[in-house]
Amino acid sequence: MITLPVIIELRDWADQLALDLAEYAPIPRLDDESEWQEWGVAFCALSGISQKNPPNPLAFDDWREWASRFVQAVS
Q1: Is the model's pTM score more than 0.85?
Q2: What is the rounded distance in angstroms from the CA atom of residue 32 to the CA atom of residue 71?
Q3: Which end of the chain is least crowded, N or C, by CB within 10 Å?
Q4: Nearest to 27 by CA among 62, 59, 61, 70
């Protein structure tokens, strides 16, 4: 189960996502929230996750919208 991006801040969601997806590979920590898209691209490329065809974070301006679609794609 992957944590939904509701009632949670970006960094907290990113930290929880690292726990939720630990079976695939270590997820890098998001230190700078302004770089959420680059962070998302990095872990979407991980084997196992990339095979689920996650949405490209560069196509989104809002992290919550991207994160919601990400959860739908990989769940």
Answers
A1: yes
A2: 21
A3: N
A4: 70
